[in-house]
Write a structure and sequence with these properties.
36% of the residues lie in helices and 19% in strands. By secondary structure, it is α/β, with parallel strands linked by helices.
């Protein structure tokens, strides 16, 4: 599969991304915007053959994928981050590009999607990223998991059940949602906060449910 450098995205997309980053008031490494565009080009190219995401146009990928992922960056905090049901690497790859010193694990059961994430890891020189092709229930890391994040992966209680073996007393579980929903049926957990998130260029509700073990 070709590298992203072979496909040039328009200056308009660069401007759209940089304007969104400015609106989010994010301070990112100097090389990150270009790498985010390279990731978008790679995703667009693979998507034409492998149907990795329902979002087809690069301009929509900027708002609905990149900026939607980056909007949660202020909530992430420090420590090892595990992106469950990462799909095409969302939100994990944009977050890893924004935080190159933070360890990020991308987990998915879909082979074509994990192959894409592995190619993105190589093409973007993401040394802080680990790609895992497995069910999260079978993932047994040697290191402590500090933050778990899930975007459009499953219901909140299913996320808690499937990742329970990764939780310790200080683990934070961040569930990215559309409409606000903080009803939990799983005992032993509490909602610390529900964060409303504004995504530039996206006229839709976005919330992040922050859950902690009790």
């Amino acid at each position: 599969m070709p590298e992203p450098a072979g496909e040039a995205l328009t200056p308009e997309l660069d401007g759209l991304l940089r304007q969104g980053i400015a609106e989010l008031q994010l301070a990112l490494p100097a090389e990150t915007p270009q790498k985010l565009l390279d990731y978008t080009a790679l995703l667009h190219r693979w998507n034409q053959t492998f149907n990795l995401t329902a979002v087809r146009e690069p301009a929509q990928m900027i708002s609905r994928h990149l900026l939607d992922s980056l909007a949660v960056l202020p909530l992430i905090g420090e420590g090892r981050l595990v992106d469950v049901g990462s799909g095409a690497g969302l939100p994990g790859i944009p977050l890893a590009l924004a935080r190159p010193q933070q360890a990020v694990v991308l987990i998915d059961t879909n082979g074509k999607k994990t192959r894409f994430m592995q190619q993105a890891k190589i093409a973007l020189a993401l040394d802080n990223v680990e790609v895992v092709h497995n069910r999260v229930q079978q993932y047994r890391p040697a290191e402590t998991v500090d933050i778990i994040i899930a975007r459009a992966y499953a219901g909140t209680d299913d996320i808690l059940a499937s990742t329970r073996h990764l939780h310790h007393d200080n683990t934070r579980i961040l569930v990215m949602q559309g409409k606000r929903d903080q009803v939990l049926a799983t005992p032993g957990y509490g909602v610390r906060a529900v964060h409303a998130v504004s995504v530039p260029g996206l006229d839709a509700e976005r919330h992040v449910l922050e859950i902690v073990p009790r």
